[in-house]
Design goal:
Largest sheet of chain A: 23 strands, parallel
Strand content of chain B: under 5%
Shape of chain A: elongated
Largest interface: A-B, 65 and 80 residues
Helix content of chain A: 10-25%
Shape of chain B: globular
Number of strands of chain A: 40
Oligomer: heterodimer
Number of helices of chain A: 5
Structural class of chain A: alpha/beta
Distance between the termini of chain A: 97 Å
Number of domains of chain B: 1
Number of helices of chain B: 11
Radius of gyration of chain A: 27 Å
Largest sheet of chain B: none
Radius of gyration of chain B: 20 Å
Structural class of chain B: mainly alpha
Number of strands of chain B: 0
Chain lengths: 451, 278
């Protein structure tokens, strides 16, 4: 009996299997999983606008002709839970103004998404997507855009079971602007795609905020990446330019603000890289330039592998990091010139704005620390400071000389660097009460004793 | 007269003396001004960006406490507690146990110094909490408690030094300065030196035990861990917590070490004083 039921279920399952288009792309959903909107879309003339009124529409949507699907009064598209909620299979489609709920269903292997695009020049705008494996998936979707969407993945899953917020694959000339992504694996995952612009997005509480793989000639600007394992990871990619981004609060055990692996000719300007376990991590990367960034409050500002070559840091501001440089390996040709280092106490007697002697990024204490993590317990001790001074005065040990020959004595003006995200501010009543109590109590003891 | 009232009387007298002393007044002024400076400048880091607002300000306050409090407690303590030929001869000839007089004096000094510190913290706190919101109130209180405990520990050490050098005030002062230097700088350099000769396992354990054993390091570790959590020392925080089996264990170990440093020297000082020929 049980076997018969199982067999029936299995057969039913096979019959329910939707057709899969060539290349593994999800096709038209079977009738039972279709949205009531499907008939309307199938009747629409190519190039027309289909307006959808407020309400909840259960089932998946398949678009095979160029049209504009516009939600009025924020209608909700609730997916069948079997695959992508909206499947775009024709060029020049626009999806605008919807709430999209994937109900936690779908399949990572079939790229199930809130909006799955496998066509050119699609636009997804002003949508709020939740409970889907991927938020928006651009698959060979040249010239597509995703604007002002908010994407929240499926909470409570392991990172390996989640998809990306916005996944871009094999696409030239994409634009991702003004989106907000949380609770997914990678906020923006860009693979084998070029000439894209990623601007003014927010990605937080996820694995990597932005992740490039094998994607050359890309730009990202004015984004905020917070609370991840890495703010941005750039791997095997060339000629990426990025400006005015904030990489903050990536504080996990091995977290990184900005990770480079086998990258070339990357230019970073005017970014804020603050409050990360490790600020900038460079491995196997060549010809990269860092100009005018602020790297602040990291355990290690830069982690540099000796597999890197010809990297330059100029005009950056390194503020209040536990250690400026953690060099993995024996040598480096990285050039540091004209940066500001907040722990640089060398004088500037000739008043040219640069310290008279080079600032050393490596000290005896770092030598200890490199071999012994527990030495960090004493980083902020006076002994560490004393050792630093002694070593500069009598250089006995010479670990690996890494120097900034023209270290600035004052922090440079960097007006383009974004300010850190707002922390809780305003007046704290309980704090003030406690402080005033301490003030008055202390004063009372001092005054009472005098009488 | 009961022991309790004698204790209170001695404490009261010492408090009056300490508060009238230029040294205490100077300490209160310097500590207050520096704490205020740290609090005001803490928000605007050199780059003009404060991300970890309170934690970094507090870290600077910790450094201020570690630098000023031990040396002040030792110097003021030794000056006040080393028995001299005049007043102290008279005081110790009273029918009150010497240890009661000593404890009373220590308590009086502690009250004066804690009052001065509370004044400074209060001034700094008003600046901090008028801007920063509730974040960090716990850390701020913890830091105050740490400073008070550190004061008590170094007053106890001062009592021990003073009890051992009756009538030789200069020697006591010199010893106090040496003690301060060892506790604040030399000890750490020493264990770092030894650790660099050991393999990494024993070296880590030595550094952790060393940090727990030295009262200055213990206070720094407790305060920074309490305020910043594991970000205070990067991965080293985790190796400390693994060593102590979690934050509770670390707290117990740190508090235990400080308690030993407080009680041990006081008991020893009382014994030394009871045998001393005044």
């Amino acid at each position: 009996m049980t076997a018969a039921v199982l067999l029936a279920l299995l057969l039913a399952g096979t019959q329910e299997m939707e057709p899969v288009l060539p290349g593994g792309v999800e096709g038209r959903p079977p009738v039972g999983q279709q949205s009531p909107l499907q008939a309307k879309i199938d009747r629409a003339a190519p190039g027309s606008t289909v307006e959808v009124g407020p309400g909840t529409y259960a089932g998946d949507v398949f678009i095979d002709r160029p049209l504009k699907l516009v939600g009025l009064g924020r209608p909700t598209l609730v997916g069948s839970g079997a695959g992508s909620v909206v499947r775009v299979r024709a060029d020049d489609v626009t999806i605008e103004g919807f709430e999209i709920d994937g109900r936690g269903g779908g399949d990572l292997g079939r790229d199930s998404s809130g909006v799955h695009v496998a066509a050119r020049r699609a636009t997804v705008r002003d949508c709020r997507i939740k409970g889907t494996v991927f938020g928006v998936y651009l698959r060979a979707a040249d010239g597509s855009r995703v604007e002002r969407c908010s994407i929240r993945g499926i909470p409570g899953r392991e990172p390996g079971e989640k998809g990306s917020g916005i996944h871009v694959w094999n696409t030239v000339g994409f634009r991702l602007v003004g989106n907000e992504v949380t609770d997914v694996r990678d906020g923006f995952y860009i693979q084998s795609s070029s000439h894209g612009l990623i601007k003014a997005n927010v990605a937080r509480d996820l694995r990597y905020g932005l992740h490039y793989m094998f994607s050359d000639d890309n730009t990202f600007e004015d984004n905020l990446f917070a609370n991840g394992a890495a703010g941005t990871a750039i791997m095997y990619s060339k000629r990426i330019i990025f400006r005015r981004n904030a990489f903050v609060h990536n504080r996990g055990f091995a977290s990184v603000g900005l990770l480079f692996k086998a990258c070339e000719h990357v230019v970073a300007e005017s970014n804020l890289i603050a409050d990360n376990a490790r600020g900038i991590f460079l491995e196997g990367s060549y010809h990269n330039r860092f100009r005018g960034n602020i790297v602040a409050e990291s355990d290690a500002a830069i982690v540099l592998f000796d597999s890197c070559a010809d990297n330059r840091f100029e005009g950056n501001s390194f503020v209040a990091n536990l250690t400026p440089l953690n060099l993995v390996g024996r040598r480096t040709d990285t050039v540091f010139e004209g940066n500001y280092w907040s722990d640089n106490d060398q004088p500037d007697l000739d008043g040219d704005g640069q310290s008279d002697r080079p600032y050393r990024l490596s000290s005896v204490f770092d030598h200890f620390r490199g071999n012994l993590t527990a030495a960090d317990l004493l980083t902020q001790s006076f002994a560490a400071a004393a050792l630093g001074v002694a070593e500069r005065t009598f250089p006995v040990l010479d670990p690996v000389p890494v120097e900034d020959r023209a270290a600035l004595v004052r922090p440079p003006e960097l007006p383009d660097v974004p300010p850190p995200p707002e922390r809780e501010s305003g007046t704290s009543k309980s704090g003030l009460v406690v402080s005033l109590a301490a003030l008055v109590g202390g004063a009372a003891v001092l005054v009472w004793g005098r009488r | 007269m009961t022991t309790g009232s004698a204790l209170a009387l001695c404490a009261r007298q010492e408090l009056v003396l300490a508060v009238r002393s230029r040294w205490t007044q100077l300490f209160a002024a310097v500590f207050g001004v520096l704490a205020l400076t740290v609090a005001t400048s803490g928000y605007i880091l050199s780059g003009g960006h404060g991300v970890q607002d309170f934690a970094r300000t507090a870290a600077s306050l910790v450094q201020l406490v570690l630098l000023l409090v031990p040396v002040t407690a030792l110097l003021i303590g030794v000056l006040a507690l080393a028995p001299d030929r005049g007043a102290d001869e008279l005081l110790y000839s009273q029918p009150v146990a010497r240890r009661t007089i000593l404890m009373g004096k220590v308590l009086g000094l502690l009250a004066a110094l804690v009052g001065a510190e509370a004044f400074g913290f209060g001034a700094a706190g008003v600046v901090i909490f008028s801007q920063s919101g509730n974040e960090g109130l716990g850390g701020f209180l913890l830091l105050q408690v740490c400073a008070f405990v550190l004061t008590a520990v170094f007053l106890a050490l001062a009592a021990l030094i003073a009890a051992g050098s009756t009538g030789r005030r200069t020697r006591a002062l010199a010893l106090a300065l040496v003690t301060w230097f060892v506790a604040v700088v030399l000890f750490d350099i020493g264990i770092l030196g030894v650790a660099s000769l050991l393999r990494s396992g024993p070296a880590s354990r030595l550094l952790i035990v060393g940090t727990l054993a030295n009262p200055v390091d213990a206070v720094r570790t407790a305060a920074l861990l309490g305020i910043q959590g594991t970000t205070a020392f990067g991965p080293a925080s985790l190796s400390l917590l693994r060593f102590s089996h979690g934050p509770m264990g670390a707290g117990v170990l740190l508090a235990g070490s400080l308690l030993l440093w407080l009680v041990g020297p006081l008991v020893w000082a009382a014994r030394r004083l009871s045998r001393a020929d005044l």
